[in-house]
Amino acid sequence: MSSYDVAVIGSGPGGYVAAIRCAQLGMKTALIEKYSTLGGTCLNVGCIPSKALLDSSHHYEDAIKHFEEHGIEVGDVKFNLEKMIARKQSVVDVTTKGIEFLMGKNEIDVYQGVGSFKDATHIDIAGEKNLTIEAKNTIIATGSKPSTLPFINIDKERIITSTEALKLPEVPKHLVVIGGGVIGLELGQVYKRLGAEVTVVEYMDRIIPTMDGAQSKELLKVFKKQKVKFALSHGVTAVERDGDEVTIKATNNKKGVDVEFKADYVLVAVGRRAYTDGLKLDAVGIKTDERGKVEVNEHLQTNVSNIYAIGDVIKGAMLAHKAEEEGTLVAEILAGQKPHIDYNLIPGVVYTWPEVASVGKTEEQLKEAGVAYKSGQFPMRALGRSRASGDTDGFVKILADKETDEVLGVHMVGARVADLIAEGVTAMEFRASAEDIARMSHAHPTYAEAVKEAALAATEDRPIHI
Ligand code: FAD
Questions:
Q1: 159-270: what CATH class?
Q2: Is 59 a known active-site residue?
Q3: Average pLDDT in the 276-283 region?
Q4: How far apart are CA 219 and CA 96, in angstroms?
Q5: pTM of the prediction?
Q6: For the segment 60-99, what is each residue's pLDDT rounded down to a tens digit?
Q7: Which helix or strand (DSSP H or E) is residue 247 part of?
Q8: Of 134, 226, 316, 464, whose CA is between 20 and 30 Å from 6?
Q9: 348-460, superfamily in CATH?
């Protein structure tokens, strides 16, 4: 029987990063993955393929809507959905192959099969061959699966999750998206750009409800301009399919009125649930919470001392980079180091266009906590860079402590803010004040100048260009 210092179950961004860091720190490491490709949800059916389709559909939209204003005449522009989806798949294939390469480079033994606990130091692997390995420590990184509402039957044809939405055989005529969160809005925008009518039905009274209220408002405004329809404060009560037609029944929570939508496709994007099926957690007595998430302490250790858990399968934001940080943290703890994650500094991003990005506390959270703060906001339309590209929607908002001027939150909507948010993370990591950012030189012309201007606005209201 092969024996390891660490076995990692699941090869998503949490699992493969944990495995690499363990190997870097000299531990003999095994990685177990039930699918034939590595990379988990993120690389196979999540972050990477969704961004590939967002990029392709964005190019198409630019060609039909925006080239002309730049003086580019292209004639009759068409898209080929099959080709678009094939390209997405090739991006995924290259990326997952890259993880295979990294496993080899770091001398990590990869097992394909379903891992389950035999006891606290032995893992059964049910694959082409059934075998058992021994591991001093195990890291559970089994991720998550799309969740649904109890009365919805996901048939994967007309009533679909994000996984199917990444490979539809045709552009829907009318796509109803249940859930106005990140995944629903990103995929809704893909099909809107390709010509579908899109209606987003959201239970809360705003989209992206976990982000700053100003971001929700701005993104809603832009989406409405793009002719996406919204039914906010609507609780879906039934989803029924009749042939190629799906009826979605919902109740307007504010008015108490029942409404109906007809669609040819319904994307159920109401969140994801921790995935522990088949792991046999009971065999070792690992505790889960009421939502099925593996319970861990601040060292991400389960109630069984040599078994840890990371990523989507535990509490916290379901984000690839959060899972990665946790993978690194556990590896370093196993090596006797004392790493730390500041969860307040894990950025959140929506890759629609304009993009939306956030780090730190929202204005709502600061109000609720009774923190005295100042706010500085700068609109993208006031930037030369934005006018040059034509991307004038959005803003940067910086929230800083009223007394100390320490930056407490950075919230953005606009072109390339998914990349820009790194400046907010860096500033907050080093506990910068808004004045610190305001005094840093930002290259001109860049979208990043909005960060400097928002910081100037937060410190004595002295932005230059507005
Ligand atoms: P996962 O990536 O889910 O990986 C878990 C792996 O474990 C899977 O490969 C699974 O097959 C394997 N596994 C499960 N059980 C077993 C078992 N018993 N034995 C062996 N293997 C097992 N996040 C971002 O940060 N940015 C984005 O842009 C983004 N976009 C997304 C878009 C979509 C459409 C979706 C669905 C998600 C997106 N996410 C994004 C979320 C991101 O994909 C997850 O947060 C991330 O994948 C979590 O990583 P993980 O390692 O915890 O688990």
A1: alpha beta
A2: no
A3: 97
A4: 32
A5: 0.97
A6: 999 999 999 999 999 999 999 999 999 999 999 999 999 9
A7: strand 245-252
A8: 316
A9: FAD/NAD-linked reductase, C-terminal dimerisation domain (3.30.390.30)
